[in-house]
Amino acid sequence: MDCVDQSEQEKLIIFITLPLSSIIILTNLLIIIGIACNRQLHDTPNYFFLSLLVADLCTGLALPFIPRMGLVRSLNFPSCLLVHIFPNFLFLSFLFNLVMVHYERYLCIVHPLHYSQFWVHRCFPVALLAVWIPPLLYASLPAFGWNNWTEKQLNLSLDANTSYILRKGEPAVSEHNCSNDEQDYCSYKQIFPKPFIYLEVYGLLLPAIFSILAMTGRVLWITRKQLSDICKLNRSVMSSETSEHEHHLNLRYAKCVALVSLTFLVCWVPYIVYLHVSVVLLQGGEKRSSSLNIILSCTGVGSMAVIPIILSLANRQYTEPVRNLLKKIRTRCARIQDLGDPS
């Protein structure tokens, strides 16, 4: 890969991910503090959501490193493992937490009378471990031998480190940083074999996404049916044309459907497109990480990381401490302005 091209791609990654990552981290911190300060929210459903926010916070921290997984860098074997395994684990745990939150709410809506009897509610620690331990185990498989790192590459990495130490800080592998021979360096192809990537994409990521969409669609269908029953009962009691209350319920449902559809288009579609583009590039044996793939990676992962924030904004209890703080700041600023303007 050309030095200029890689430098431009690094700048592009920073330009896209830095503001998005900062917004995700700051917003999640505020919501986490709001939930922690409100004792009324200290129950099982909100603990699941709190775990999701922590995972989303970690995803925001890892966001600048995820597009870099497609670049070719001169790193030794342990460092190469770390820069690939750790971001992959954080993103998988985020997706597992997102599935668990939707599953818990799905059970609460579909089976409201028997919700407390399900294992998700009765065995909360087990459910919490189920969204963190399996992603860690799967992401760590390359560290236990499922990788394409050969003995020759390991020897080259050790020789490069030794040369670096002997030169007292002069990078011995600098002449390799922009070589076209990708087999000598750290890239995702050396850490993640093709079967590993295919299993993750088609065995974990896409099934998780489609399960979330299926549960959301089922909840909307149940909501629509209940709304229709309420409207029929209302008409039988009022024995007149559609009431204002019925109009209000239909409007709220329409807003809910519009929000879900918009969330799917803005948050899910970019990531699904990125997954398929990545698989096509992998099948084509592309050696370069194109700017288009980097943009898709940043926007796809970043848009998914916004989903917990959207869910938080839909619950006024989560944002109440922040809104109260903003009101106090606004009031104090208004008082200061009034004192400074005696007229």
Automatic annotation (TrEMBL):
Mode of membrane association: Multi-pass membrane protein
Principal localisation: membrane
Cellular location(s): Cell membrane
Start and end residues of each G-protein coupled receptors family 1 profile domain: 27-311
Residue spans crossing the bilayer: 12-35, 47-66, 81-103, 124-146, 201-221, 256-274, 294-314
Keyword Heme part of the UniProt annotation: no
Sorted UniProt keywords: Cell membrane, Disulfide bond, G-protein coupled receptor, Glycoprotein, Membrane, Receptor, Transducer, Transmembrane, Transmembrane helix
GO molecular function, one term: G protein-coupled bile acid receptor activity
CDD domains assigned to the protein according to its UniProt record, in alphabetical order: 7tmA_GPBAR1
One Pfam family, short name: 7tm_1
Cellular-component GO terms for this entry: plasma membrane
Keyword field contains Transmembrane: yes
PROSITE patterns, A to Z: G_PROTEIN_RECEP_F1_2
Organism domain of life: Eukaryota
Name of the protein in its database record: G-protein coupled bile acid receptor 1
Lineage: Eukaryota, Metazoa, Chordata, Craniata, Vertebrata
Gene responsible for this protein: gpbar1
